[in-house]
Amino acid sequence: MKFPLMIATAAATLSLGITAQADAPLKVGISGEPYPPFTYRAASGDWTGFEVELAHRLCEAMGRDCEVAPTGWSGIIPSLNAGRIDMIMNSMSITEQRQRVIDFTRPYYFTPGAYVAAEERELAIPGGLDGLIMGVQSATTNATYARRELRDSGVDIRLYDQAEQVNNDLLAGRLDLVLADEIAMLQFLERDEAANFEIKATAPRHEAYGEGIGIGLRQDDDDLREALNAAIAAVIEDGTCGELSEQFLGTDVCVYD
């Protein structure tokens, strides 16, 4: 799918966003459970990460003040629709199921799901999963993919509320493998305690993963969607998105046209 970066249109939309801004800062919803390197607390106690810093740049482009609003992942969509937050910016994939209850901006990044297991484990996917225990964070596109495509493989799929719970059970030997975002897993593998684990394979492109990662919005928030789409176009075109991606992720995952 093409997403042209129309700078003149973006500038016009941004101008409208600036003149029509409300006094209250926009509340950017992220999961209260850290999801490094996308969202996590720095040593200062402030939230940072690729998506947190990108959110601040988007708000600057719109001329809006923003504040980070940590929210439980399982309740983040209800919080959006109830007006407790104004947008969700936490690696949320644009899927048909989610689009029934919320709207999205254009995608700003995409990464595949990755299977991680101990280096010593011989693993064929999906043919070699029978009898194994696999951990996946619930309410994610990886969980949707696992239910749809791996249920006949014989693998025992265990769902967890938080990504770190999955990682801890893999390290403790309670799981044979995990399926999670590739970038998050690359970060996990840099830990000393994960030195004996590796990515075995990545999941194929599948409808469960949608079009990529977008910003979740209320379905009637057309003005904010247009302003954010223009801001996303601007920060991708001027290189800000790519610079932040390289800084936090070590690679450029931004979605270009």
Automatic annotation (TrEMBL):
The keyword Cytoplasm does not apply. It is found in: Cell envelope. Residues 1-22 form the signal peptide. InterPro entries: SBP_3_CS, Solute-binding_3/MltF_N. Residues 25-252 form the Solute-binding protein family 3/N-terminal domain. Pfam families: SBP_bac_3. PROSITE patterns: SBP_BACTERIAL_3. Keywords: Signal. Belongs to the bacterial solute-binding protein 3 family. PANTHER family: ARGININE-BINDING EXTRACELLULAR PROTEIN ARTP, MEMBRANE-BOUND LYTIC MUREIN TRANSGLYCOSYLASE F. This is Transporter substrate-binding domain-containing protein.
